[in-house]
Amino acid sequence: MATCYSIQELMRMISSAAGSIADTVSDREGHQFMDALLGASRVYVTGAGRSGLIAKAFGMRLMHLGMESYVVGETITPAMQKGDLLVAFSGSGETHSITDICKTAKMVGGTLALVTSRSESSIATIADLAVVLDSRQYDDEGLSSDFAIRQITGSHRSGADYNPKAPIGSLFETAAMIFSDAVILELMDLRHTAKDEVEDNYSNIQ
Amino acid sequence: MATCYSIQELMRMISSAAGSIADTVSDREGHQFMDALLGASRVYVTGAGRSGLIAKAFGMRLMHLGMESYVVGETITPAMQKGDLLVAFSGSGETHSITDICKTAKMVGGTLALVTSRSESSIATIADLAVVLDSRQYDDEGLSSDFAIRQITGSHRSGADYNPKAPIGSLFETAAMIFSDAVILELMDLRHTAKDEVEDNYSNIQ
Amino acid sequence: MATCYSIQELMRMISSAAGSIADTVSDREGHQFMDALLGASRVYVTGAGRSGLIAKAFGMRLMHLGMESYVVGETITPAMQKGDLLVAFSGSGETHSITDICKTAKMVGGTLALVTSRSESSIATIADLAVVLDSRQYDDEGLSSDFAIRQITGSHRSGADYNPKAPIGSLFETAAMIFSDAVILELMDLRHTAKDEVEDNYSNIQ
Amino acid sequence: MATCYSIQELMRMISSAAGSIADTVSDREGHQFMDALLGASRVYVTGAGRSGLIAKAFGMRLMHLGMESYVVGETITPAMQKGDLLVAFSGSGETHSITDICKTAKMVGGTLALVTSRSESSIATIADLAVVLDSRQYDDEGLSSDFAIRQITGSHRSGADYNPKAPIGSLFETAAMIFSDAVILELMDLRHTAKDEVEDNYSNIQ
């Protein structure tokens, strides 16, 4: 074991980078997102790859809060309708299969909320609202010269050879998970959810 | 919208709490975990609920690095054998279905690594090695009096009425994701993985 | 290509074998199963391996009919409660993880219906009702001497070296799928479900 | 309970209908499909809704035979490459998300095999080979006047108001499962797979 950083050091770097991304979320974005959630009949979540796993983690918590939520592609997910909200997690905003799902959501009269790392993209163009978790903002602070940080942020993928479909950096997903959990805390507060109610919904069979 | 904290503030709290958990990981735990990964023929991952999603996120990255990894319960997961490693994510270390899977892994001659928030549990007892991401350590710093922090850490669940099966706090899962990503960066360094190789394994069909 | 049978011939053999299994279902079993479905608040489905896929196919159709159904282990599956029904698909009735889930269902006050190929098993013992799709009945007709039929029915696994966890024969799963579809047709008839209603629930987003 | 048919009768009807579909598979289709499987480096499977579950059941069996198979969308599915085969299950051959996946498979140099109920469709146009399980052939035999049979075959959806995205009839999926199992038996024969080898691959951890 002769790497530059210990696992603990890398964990602190990632946490710190994720925290700094909070600064890139505007109050307006936060409010719009909360309003969309509170106003939706049902909430559908989607995402590809690791972003899809974060989408599921968010959808599961919504269910714990007693909200009706569904994961696109799971077995018992019913047809989406007018009044329903789709929350799409896509760092690039360009993932082909997710773009298609977003188009469908709009076509059936649903509302589309995007959680992304780029303010401009195919999905951002059709989204009703977007929350931008901008890991590139972080790069601007001059920390991107370091290998580990570049891996974390995926910043070496930016520029001419930027491939939005395949960032190595996992920072968007971590930031998206932290954003989701912050939203859940906010929802619990706004809905005056008692923890006992939440616990009643925890899966007792798995 | 009249909550105590903005989403941005909650995100910073969660990130900071997750970062402080890095301090609870010992060098020995980190080394043992890396050695187990590097020495395994194949790596299986498992976890229930949201921990299971983190397990999948980790397994996906291992595949990206060119390692042979499988998620317990997915379609094409083959029988586990001697020489294989099971990485179980369980905050409580007591989840019944995961305990059963861990016992099976040991029975077929596999190695069992546990990522958990408690040093003592049913799974910890039979694990070959464990990484403890102790969110209760964080509580000791006196921050647990605040509602939001208590929700984040799930610390209000500790004590007499502690129910290891249902912590509200999502902090373990966030810390486990950050730990997993730190491990991936360490693996890339140790294996001299070029980012091009990683990209070649990214799913191009989803 | 010099095999004993063409794919078409094998398809006819499998279909014929599956059809003959219908004879092993008693009227009482059929009625009990329909009554349990019609009386349940919510229907949970489970199964391991390929039986789990048949369970999902059944759960999806129940959703199409407008019934509230959940797959054990999927993201938004809430806690099971008294009045809920668990339909477990297990050929052997002994699969360890499914047995555990069945015990939990009983413990929380749920009703347990088993779809299986053996009338006696660990799960059968605790089930409130069972539907036996007995592929071994078919073997008794003297057709089991043939390689293909033996593979289809898995009958070579019976007897002393019978391993309930690993039958090669896929016949149980095929019969279970056909049984499930028959149940769905019966439900549509009993509930006077118009096909338009069913179509409204088809996923429009996947 | 005052329905026209018992569950047993419905099971026999479905089995019989599925068996008759075997007649619509040509020898050439069967041979091409087997050759594609035997010549592939890796086999990817995909399908939407219930067809996706049949695709998984097929992919699982391929793994049991020791072949390298992957389910599109699962966690550890690597990038598809030249020499790989995609087997798509789509009754209509028009499902949007599956069409996209098929186009990607062709674009990266993969071979595309389609299992479908219609000889002409968007996917059929780009597929290298197709196996047509034509449930409408069955309708021509004059049996479609009956309610149950119409539900089974979905034939009432044909004609002017035919909606390829939402057939109620589950017959295609049942026939596709039986076709898949026939293919597996054929593969075992051609590859001289001993049942012991198959059993060694059965999941022992789930």
Report on this structure.
Chains A, B, C, D: Belongs to the SIS family. PHI subfamily. Chains A, B, C, D: Residues 33-193 form the SIS domain. Chains A, B, C, D: Pfam families: SIS (PF01380). Chains A, B, C, D: GO terms for molecular function: carbohydrate derivative binding; isomerase activity. Chains A, B, C, D: This is 6-phospho-3-hexuloisomerase. Four copies of one chain form a homotetramer. Chain A has 206 residues and is of the alpha/beta class. Chain A has a single domain, classed as Rossmann fold (3-Layer(aba) Sandwich), CATH 3.40.50.10490. Helices cover 50% and strands 11% of the residues of chain A. A five-stranded parallel sheet of chain A has the order 2-1-3-4-5. The first copy, chain A, is globular.
Protein traits:
homotetramer; 206 residues; alpha/beta; Rossmann fold; 5-stranded parallel β-sheet; 9 helices; 5 strands; globular; isomerase activity (chains A, B, C, D); PHI/rmpB (chains A, B, C, D); 6-phospho-3-hexuloisomerase (chains A, B, C, D)
SSE order and pairing:
Four copies of one chain form a homotetramer.
Chain A: H1 7-21, H2 27-39, E1 43-47, H3 49-64, E2 69-71, E3 85-89, H4 96-107, E4 111-116, H5 122-126, E5 129-132, H6 135-143, H7 147-153, H8 171-190, H9 195-201
Parallel strand pairs in A: 1-2, 1-3, 3-4, 4-5
Helix pairs in contact in A: 1-7, 1-8, 3-8
